[in-house]
């Protein structure tokens, strides 16, 4: 240590801690020898020792006082109690989570089914309104295509059905003599003839005590002709009826596919040539049409059925993706939908009464 001028901080702290930097006894002796010779290093050592003592005093007062460690058996017992409490809580929490997830899935599934039902019902209502408008147009076209004579009689019928005031006593004979003249005139001049009869009645009244009752033949003919035209008009169009009325006209059960909403049933024709058409909803924007008629319907009556209805006497044939015809309860049922033939055949195998 002859060449050492002063001790550095590391050497002083190592000497205070009792652990010299080189870890040997010779190094500690060299530090003590230098401290004995150097007054400045001794002063620095005392200063560092005072700082260490104050730090130990502060740390001693900050720590816990009177803390005793528990025995190891108490520690093990406390850990077992904590583990038992956790085992009791965990299954309950797991069940609560499972119940909440199951409830959420159930609510979502039911909400999905409700939304689909509302969509199907809305589409069914629009299709029903469109079918009703189409039937109204067909009826208007049929009425416009009626012969002119029938239209004139139909327009004049309500006026004939209204109760008329009895004529005065003096005009009975005139009315009875004017009736044959009205029969001989054309229908186009009927209004002019009635006006002339009324004018003649006002100008030349004849009073009589008794006269035969006026003939009601012209009025009966005028009333019956419009009524006779109504059945002919009704047989040329599809008429929407309830399922019970359709079964009554068919004389047998009405074919439907169970579980599918119905847009309505319409009938065509009368007697053995009656044909029914039922439209049911398969899904959003997809429907199936069931056309039903008797298998043994007479050919001459079946000739009046429009092209939309299937012919009962023709051979059964399947058109892929368009129509499939099957026999059911003595009837010929044709299903039409935008589906493959095998899918349409499976649907027709489920036919039953509504």
Please provide a written account of the structure.
With 354 residues, this protein is an alpha+beta fold. The chain is 56% helix and 12% strand. α2 packs across α3 and α5 (148-161) crosses α8. It has a seven-stranded antiparallel sheet, with helices on both faces. The longest helix is centred in the first third of the chain and has 73 residues, at 72-144. It contains eleven helices and seven strands. The chain folds into four domains: 9-59, no CATH class; 79-145; 149-162 and 169-204 and 214-235, no CATH class; 239-348, Phosphorylase Kinase, domain 1 (2-Layer Sandwich).
Give the tags.
alpha+beta; 4 domains; single chain; 354 residues; seven-stranded antiparallel sheet; 11 helices; 7 strands; 12% strand; 56% helix
Q: Secondary-structure map with pairings?
A:
Elements: H1 9-17, H2 25-37, H3 39-62, H4 72-144, H5 148-161, H6 172-184, H7 190-203, H8 217-235, E1 239-241, H9 243-250, E2 262-268, E3 275-283, E4 286-294, H10 299-302, E5 318-319, E6 323-328, E7 331-336, H11 341-348
Antiparallel strand pairs: 1-2, 2-3, 3-4, 4-7, 5-6, 6-7
Helix pairs in contact: 2-3, 5-8, 6-7
Beta content: 5-15%
* Structural domain tally: 4
The CATH topology of the largest domain turns out to be Phosphorylase Kinase, domain 1
The rounded distance between the terminal residues' Cα atoms is: 119 Å
How many beta-strand elements?
Answer: 7
Main sheet characteristics? 7 strands, antiparallel
Low-confidence stretches: 148-154, 156-162, 170-188, 216-234, 297-320
């Amino acid at each position: 240590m002859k060449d050492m001028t002063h001790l550095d901080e590391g050497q002083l702290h190592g000497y205070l801690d009792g652990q010299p930097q080189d870890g040997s006894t010779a190094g500690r002796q060299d530090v003590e020898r230098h401290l004995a010779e150097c007054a400045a290093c001794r002063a620095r050592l005392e200063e560092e020792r005072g700082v260490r003592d104050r730090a130990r005093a502060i740390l001693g007062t900050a720590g816990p006082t009177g803390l005793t460690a528990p025995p190891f058996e108490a520690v093990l017992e406390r850990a077992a109690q904590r583990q038992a409490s956790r085992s009791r809580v965990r299954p309950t929490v797991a069940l609560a989570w499972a119940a909440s997830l199951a409830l959420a899935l159930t609510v979502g599934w039911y909400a999905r089914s409700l939304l689909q039902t509302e969509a199907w019902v809305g589409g069914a209502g629009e299709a029903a309104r469109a079918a009703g408008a189409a039937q109204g147009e067909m009826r208007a076209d049929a009425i416009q295509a009626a012969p002119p004579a029938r239209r004139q009689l139909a327009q004049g019928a309500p006026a004939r059905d209204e109760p008329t005031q009895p004529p005065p006593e003096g005009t009975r004979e005139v009315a009875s003599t004017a009736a044959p003249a009205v029969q001989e005139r054309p229908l186009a001049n009927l209004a002019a003839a009635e006006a002339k009869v009324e004018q003649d009645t006002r100008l030349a009244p004849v009073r009589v005590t008794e006269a035969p009752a006026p003939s009601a033949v012209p009025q009966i003919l005028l009333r019956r002709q419009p009524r006779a035209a109504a059945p002919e008009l009704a047989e040329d169009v599809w008429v929407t009826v309830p399922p019970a009325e359709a079964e009554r006209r068919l004389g047998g059960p009405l074919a439907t596919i169970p579980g599918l909403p119905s847009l309505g049933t319409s009938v065509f024709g009368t007697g053995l040539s009656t044909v029914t058409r039922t439209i049911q909803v398969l899904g959003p924007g997809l429907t199936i049409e069931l056309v039903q008629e008797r298998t043994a319907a007479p050919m001459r009556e079946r000739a009046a059925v429009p092209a939309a209805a299937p012919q009962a006497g023709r051979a059964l044939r399947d058109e892929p993706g368009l129509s499939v015809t099957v026999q059911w309860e003595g009837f010929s049922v044709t299903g039409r939908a935008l589906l493959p033939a095998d899918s349409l055949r499976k649907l027709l195998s489920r036919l039953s009464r509504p």
